[in-house]
């Protein structure tokens, strides 16, 4: 788990953001690749060992592939994207800041500064960079105005993770709940023993993942609500 230095040095903040971008991309690739590999070995590899004289249920293989891939993705996302990691991304994004390009003709009468990489710019200030005018949107702004990756990092982590701190948990709970209901329906309609055993095993793992997600949602929901009360009191 990376740690947040909580340093306002512009150069160190940008270096920390670059490291977190690489780390976050690696985590998402790990979720995608691992879930696809798990589903591939469970659903498609056994089909290769079936003799040509035997019947293969292709619909069930595709359904099993989707069930395993989605279930594995939810479990891995809960493990690789915990609440502490999401909060760390938000803190780094809040120190990085964000710039929005503005029309120079609309702010010709407003003071405009020349952007420098060693300065921490306050919110609302106008700077010139690469012949364009940008407006500071964050409380602290050390991002490179023309760097699109800095803009995406700030927008994604400040609004997706922090504006709705429990959004990612809510999405995972809804996805896992939908998977459980679908598997229960498939289990009721199943008439073949191998499908029943496969669904029961996947359903057991989803029950455990759903319990852990719901527990984290309740605990973090109370913590965030208590923090909001203290903030506005």
Describe this structure in words.
It is a single chain. The chain has helices at residues 10-48, 58-80, 83-96, 148-162, 167-189, 193-232; strands spanning 99-102, 113-114, 126-129, 132-136. By secondary structure, it is an alpha+beta fold. The protein folds into 2 domains: 10-94 and 153-232, no CATH class; 97-147, no CATH class. Helix 5 (167-189) runs antiparallel to helix 6. The radius of gyration is 24 Å and the shape is elongated. It starts with 9 loop residues before the first helix and ends with a helix.
Task: Provide a concise account of the structure shown.
It is built from six helices and four strands.
How are the SSEs ordered, and which strands pair?
Blueprint: H1 10-48, H2 58-80, H3 83-96, E1 99-102, E2 113-114, E3 126-129, E4 132-136, H4 148-162, H5 167-189, H6 193-232
Parallel strand pairs: 2-3
Antiparallel strand pairs: 1-4, 3-4
Give the beta-strand count: 4
Amount of beta strand = 5-15%
Proportion of helical residues: 55-70%
Structural class by sheet pairing and helices: alpha+beta
Average pLDDT, to the nearest integer? Answer: 83
Instruction: Calculate Rg over CA atoms.
Output: 24 Å
Tally of DSSP helical segments: 6
Order of helices and strands: HHHEEEEHHH
* Unreliable segments of 5+ consecutive residues: none
For the largest beta sheet, what order do the strands appear in spatially? 1-4-3-2
Q: Key features?
A:
233 residues, 2 domains, 4 strands, 66% helix
């Amino acid at each position: 788990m990376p740690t947040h230095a909580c340093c306002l040095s512009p150069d160190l903040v940008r270096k920390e953001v670059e490291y977190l971008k690489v780390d976050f991309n690696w985590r998402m690739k790990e979720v995608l690749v691992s879930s696809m590999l798990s589903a591939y070995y469970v659903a498609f590899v056994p089909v290769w060992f079936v003799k040509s004289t035997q019947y293969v249920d292709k619909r069930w293989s595709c359904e099993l592939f989707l069930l395993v891939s989605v279930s594995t993705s939810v479990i891995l996302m809960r493990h690789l994207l915990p609440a502490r990691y999401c909060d760390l991304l938000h803190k780094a994004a809040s120190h990085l800041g964000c710039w929005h390009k503005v029309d120079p003709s609309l702010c010709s009468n407003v003071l405009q500064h020349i952007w420098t990489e060693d300065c921490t710019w306050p919110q609302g200030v106008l700077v010139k960079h690469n012949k364009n005018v940008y407006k500071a949107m964050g409380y602290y702004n050390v991002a490179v105005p023309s760097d699109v990756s800095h803009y995406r990092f700030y927008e994604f982590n400040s609004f997706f993770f922090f504006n709705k701190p429990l959004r990612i948990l809510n999405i995972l709970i809804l996805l896992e709940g939908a998977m459980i209901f679908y598997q229960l329906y498939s289990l009721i309609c199943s008439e073949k023993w191998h499908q029943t055993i496969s669904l029961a095993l996947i359903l057991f793992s989803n029950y455990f993942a759903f319990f852990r997600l719901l527990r984290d949602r309740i605990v973090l929901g109370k913590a965030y609500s208590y923090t909001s009360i203290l903030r506005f009191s």
